[in-house]
Design a protein that fits this description.
Oligomer: single chain
Largest sheet: 2 strands, antiparallel
Strand order of the largest sheet: 1-2
Strand content: under 5%
Radius of gyration: 27 Å
Shape: rod-shaped
Structural class: mainly alpha
Number of helices: 4
Length: 142
């Protein structure tokens, strides 16, 4: 009995297609989740976005290994750059300033400049003297 030709020779155009589309999906999933978080006003560090982009790079790499085409190479390079930019942003750009410890009694506060409620600027040197001052730290809404 003869076997069908498709069983032994699968279509080479379809080889790795699932990896390609999984990579595209994972790459777009991170920014989409961040947009949803932003719309819901739930702001947190989007660590999942570069992680998903890295998984997308791995999927696209598997797609390129199975079948080398210009579109797959272009997608791999683009997504790899996108993942690298996200990791750079997560590791360097949104890094918090160094914690220098709590303020202690008798220790002077570091130099700073702020704004009054009317918009005029003031510095820490203006707070010295006999008058009492209250500083209110309003984080704001975004």
């Amino acid at each position: 009995m003869a076997e069908p030709a498709n069983a032994s020779n699968p279509d080479p155009r379809r080889s790795g297609r699932a990896f390609f589309w999984a990579g595209v999906f994972l790459c777009l999933l991170g920014p989409t989740l961040f947009a949803v978080e932003f719309a819901l006003k739930h702001l947190a560090v989007p660590w999942y976005s570069p992680a998903l982009a890295t998984l997308a790079v791995l999927c696209l790499l598997a797609a390129v290994v199975r079948r080398r085409t210009v579109s797959r190479w272009a997608a791999l390079v683009f997504v790899a750059l996108f993942a690298a930019i996200q990791w750079y942003g997560l590791a360097v750009i949104i890094k918090l300033p160094e914690y220098k410890g709590p303020v202690r009694v008798g220790k002077s506060i570091p130099a700073f400049q702020g704004n009054r409620s009317d918009g005029s600027a003031f510095t820490n040197s203006e707070l010295k003297g006999d008058r009492r001052h209250v500083l209110v730290f309003f984080r704001g809404r975004w």
